[in-house]
Amino acid sequence: MTARSTGKTLLLWASFFLLLMTTDVLAQKPPDWILVGKGGCVVWNASPRPGDSASWTGVCVAGPVNGAGTLQWFQEGRPADRFEGEFRDGLMEGRGTYVWAGGDRYVGQFHTNLRNGQGAMSFVNGDRYDGDYRDGRQEGRGIYVWSDGRRYVGEFKDDKLVKGVLSLPNGDRYDGFFFDSRPQGQGQLIFADGAAYQGEWKQGRPNGEGTHRTSDGRIFTGTWTNGCFRQGTRWDAVAATPKECGFR
User: Fold this and answer.
1) pTM of structure
2) Is 188 among the domain residues?
3) pLDDT of 62-94, one tens digit each?
4) CB 3.0-4.6 Å disulfide test: which of 111, 177, 201, 213 passes with 183?
5) Does residue 32 lie within any of the structural domains?
6) Which residue range is the domain that position 209 belongs to?
């Protein structure tokens, strides 16, 4: 292949990728109003997609929707998300129920089109959350129960655990701080058999100064690294296996 033909080939590929990027940008629409009734009423569509449409069962007067009713979204003519509740100036406001096309369901308070205040969320995978929301995210006090039996009671921020009690199906319980929804900072892990570790955590494991009291009365106090403790010939492991610690 000559240098000239190589240049033409690169130009063709560049044009192809530019076309793909342009098509993708054109497919994305900015937030806008969408007509939902014959009376000329509209609601705010925060994330428009090609093929979006909607219907409204409440009072329909030209302009933004106000009052109670049911808003049914459609995607390419097929039923998608649904909201039942109050609107103010074309935005979800007050108490309502929002059901996603995939089956997730929220019942609670809305403000300026987002989940704000007290609400309960049921996920199609069996998880449940009941508590505070802020700008569409779990934030404040709440209870989250996983389908596998885990249960957390405490504080949330940006949909993540911050400080509280996480109970496991086997009877173990962690009480303390979290970062990125994993134990981090000061915390205590109490085992179902009566053993307990109290001290510093990082990335879900004991890291730093801490004390582990076993169910048979042994005590391991000192510096822990990734759940592993060694002091002379004595060793221990918490939230890690002896093999992971290199003890066996």
Assistant:
1) 0.85
2) yes
3) 999 999 999 999 999 999 999 999 999 999 999
4) 201
5) no
6) 181-248
